[in-house]
Amino acid sequence: MRTKQLAPPPAGSDLRPINGTGDPGVIELLRFFRNPVRLVAQRREAFGDITYINAFGQKFAVPLTADGAESVAANRQKALAAEPAWGFLIGPFFRRGILLMDFEEHRHHRLILQHAFNNKHLRGYLDDMQPMLRDGVRGLPVGENILILDRFKELTLDLALEIFLGMDLPRPEADRINKAFIDCVNAGMSLVRRNIPGTKWARGLAGRAVLEEFFRAHLPAKRATETPDLFSVLCRARSEEGHTFTDEDVVNHMIFVLMAAHDTSTITLTTMAYYLALHPEWQEKARAQSRALPRDITYDNLAEFTVLDAVMKESLRLNSPVPGLARRALEDTEIDGHFVPKGTYVSAIGMVNHHNPALWTDPERFDPDRFSPERAEDKSHRYAWMPFGGGVHKCIGLYFAQMEIKTIMHNLLLEYEWSVPDGYTWKLDNTTLPVPKDRLPVTLRAI
Length: 447
Ligand code: HEM
Prior knowledge:
Layout: E1 4-5, E2 19-20, H1 25-34, H2 36-47, E3 50-55, E4 58-63, H3 66-74, E5 80-81, H4 83-94, H5 103-113, H6 119-138, E6 143-147, H7 148-165, H8 171-187, H9 200-224, H10 230-236, H11 247-278, H12 280-291, H13 306-318, E7 324-329, E8 333-335, E9 338-340, E10 345-349, H14 350-354, H15 398-415, E11 416-419, E12 428-429, E13 435-436, E14 441-446
Parallel strand pairs: 4-10
Antiparallel strand pairs: 1-2, 3-4, 5-7, 6-14, 7-10, 8-9, 11-14, 12-13
The structure holds protoporphyrin IX containing FE.
Residues 82, 98-99, 110, 257, 260-261, 264-265, 268, 321-322, 325-326, 387-389, 393, 395-397, 400-401 line the site of protoporphyrin IX containing FE (HEM).
């Protein structure tokens, strides 16, 4: 493997350079898409604690240690910013979302947004989501070849419409909004990054226009009448300092939050379904715990799902829905003693740590017990397990996500058993967020 420096460190500094192969972006990305875990292992062996890869015409510095991920997420020198990096990747589709803000402005918006995810609102969302999730799970088709990814996508979309929007949209309208979201999400990984008709990029821009028009049209009604959904909550959300959102803020945050919530939860559910199908003994354990809990759970019951909790954590470790935290250096800085010149893109990739044999025993094995208090492998480093990120941009929806995922899984376990054929192994499509290429066909049996 050839070695090229990202940039020489300044004369006289004891910083070391960041090395990589210098191969063209298309080749690097194809390697990443094919097998990201192998790529990371090879780079660690060749270049040590940090490397860089070319992607989308830019150089991305990628720390290969948990310390490196921490220094990106914690950003103690305030030399890294999220907007210039996420803005480059998804800005045209998700502009002015909270992840595309930095420093004081980010803090201002986050303090208002947090209000929508406080304990009181979470309890309300859980009460509202249960009947629809229970009916949705009960309505799943049984038999062979049920594409469970698609089913979870429908469930999480219906949930988003009800809990986030508080709307009972006709199916064609719900499908139109869903398609606009999917087009925006897929556009971010587009290799062609210009508005050329027929490309993912162009579809993303059209999707953004649909979403803006949709939220603007419904905003006056939401401002006028208070309802328990997120849209209405955001219209009234107020930080302790008394700040509120403008109409434009509400539209931008709704578009971003719905995007952030939807595929991430779907992928986590699909990953859990996959590993529970491969490991029926864990499925049975989780079912036994669900049977010991009420069908309609309360917020306080959530902590009692210890088996599902471990399975969820292990699934998030093995397949993190958000591959990495993206940042850009606003000035010359350093990560782990390596020189990062101003303008460099930086990505702390979760799987780098999640599959690192120095942090986890036998990392490729599905082993939820590794999260038990006795073993607590996730505590080997603050950033050994980082599917929700860290630092000021840490996922604001993390408790919401766990609540939604556990509620769906609880209902699924009580209604069905599911399996995959002997010897089945999924193949992931990493060109977007990581999803199984075949959408995970399972055999679903009512019990
Ligand atoms: C299992 C599901 C989820 C995963 C794995 C996940 C992962 C993440 C990660 C890694 C980040 C940080 C990105 C960065 O720092 O560059 C993030 C941020 C965020 N997430 Fe999640 N997320 C999930 C579900 C949700 C849900 C359900 C919501 C909303 C209801 C949500 C809303 C957000 C928001 C608003 C941010 C940006 C926070 C900020 O910039 O201050 N996420 N998420």
